[in-house]
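Hi V.,

You were right to ask for the full record rather than a summary. Here it is.
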Amino acid sequence: MTEPTVGSLRVPGATLRYEVRGRGPLLLLIPGGAGGAAAVEEIADAFAADHTVVSYDPRGMGGSPLDDPEAEQRVSEHADDALRLLDEVSPGEPARVFGASSGAIAALHLLATRPDRVERVVAHEPPVVEVLPDAAVHRALVARVQETLRTRGLMPAMSVFAEGLRKEGGGDTAGPRGVTELPPRAAARRERTMADLPYFVGRIVPSFMAYTPDADRLAGLSGRLVLAGGEDSRGELPYRTAAFLADRLGSELRHFPGGHTGLTTHPAAFGAHLREALGA
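Predicted structure:
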């Protein structure tokens, strides 16, 4: 394990906790879900031998508190946080960027709005449901999740959310095939992840899943964008959005080990695929 240098960066409305490892070309890791920087630490360690790797807790999670705990969250603001981190660590140097899930949505926005700062983006299963023909169905899902969270609490809301992410026509999405337990470092993160889950479900999910990427802009930048999906999540909602967007941009969807959380369940194999996708 590579011990990171830990920093703190003031941004509008929040203070970001970030970590820097290694030396070499700049690689920014944008975590998804409620995991924060700890969720990508295996990947960060793997790349630190030949990259300057930056990871962080997104605003409102982990060690990155909001000035106003009730503040509405916006994709553009989260993407601006990523840009400010790039400027803090290495002003002017184009970066390689990896984003997972909600972090992949922020990465797409960063590429579309500031391509001068991005050399290449790998976006793993961004749940940009607004690109899908049946987007209205998924808007209704998000509304049900929020209503369930308000009236019945976190775990019932998570059950509704998980059901909505299942494969078309049903099917088991209980976990990646052949995986019976999390790796030790992933299991150790469970408590922190659970602590951030209400914020993620209540603030990040409705905002990020309402986001519509600028497909025309991204099409012009498709040579710098790799859209990825999990081998074990074919047919699930985040996979479908990644596949649909890749097709719309005229690019091929690249498959990574595991499912939606493959970077947690298959960190070594996932990191090897990421290295290839980044051309690193």
